[in-house]
Amino acid sequence: MDRLRAYEVFVAVVAKGSFTRAAETLDTSPANVTRYVNELEAHLATRLLNRSSRRLSLTEAGEALVERARGILDEVAETEAIASSAALSPRGRLRLNAPLSFGMLHLAPLWPRFLARYPEIELDVDLIDRVVDLVGEGYDLAVRISRVGSQALVGRKLAASRNIVCASPDYIARRGAPAVPADLLGHDCVGYSGAATADEWHLVDGSGRPHAVKVPCVMHSNNGDTVRAAALAGLGVIWQPTFLIGDDLRQGRLIPLLPGHRMPDIDVLAVYPSRRHLSAKVRVMVDFLAEAFRGIPPWDRA
């Protein structure tokens, strides 16, 4: 059995939802398509597809295999292109992971332009608020709002985002505005539980002297949008990055606090596994994102 051809046939059947349509796509006969799928199932000693007169569906084993088979086919295509030409054309499926809020606000508007520029790339975007295992979970690239961390990954800085301590005008009218970090001890705060320092907020003053305050929190959330919504409703003082609250600051819905003090900036990074060949599709995506966020990033403009 030509296993690579069998994978190609199997992936085509899943994509088209039909043996007949897969045969048309591959320019072969339905009998050949059936033979390849049967041989693959026999080789693996498991059923990959549930067949009925009306539809096909993947078994659990089929679901596990189809993603891996797609990756194998993509890697073979890229390897062949490298061998035949010094200029590899960006193509194939690109799996990208990013945090939920950043992905919705700042990446989603970019995808039509990216796909228009690179029509042979199939974009698969997962928005997840956790640090994924790029290699183990099959991602080509991730956008992270953090330091690179693992030395097993390569990172390219795309932009920076400021962290701002702020509250709504309504809250400030009721409770007043803290002038120095220690004043936060007398205020209601909303904590972001996704931060490594939890309820201890770290700031520096104009001379670079650090200030750490264990703030009293009336609420916690691991989601920045929820923290933002609580502040807009007047629940308390928060800190969040400008990529999330930049418009609120510009429109006066949130007011910056603690003049003369600031939190350290955070980086927006593109990270990818260093031990794998950097394919053309990953390279053009990293370059595209770097171009999109070049200079003053959109969340800090005006």
From TrEMBL:
Record carries keyword DNA-binding: yes
InterPro entries assigned: LysR-type_TF_proteobact-type, LysR_HTH_N, LysR_subst-bd, WH-like_DNA-bd_sf, WH_DNA-bd_sf
Domain of life: Bacteria
Any Pfam family hit: LysR_substrate
Keyword Protease applies: no
Residue ranges annotated for the HTH lysR-type domain, each copy included: 1-59
Gene Ontology terms, MF aspect: DNA binding
Family recorded in the similarity comment: Belongs to the LysR transcriptional regulatory family.
Protein known as: DNA-binding transcriptional LysR family regulator
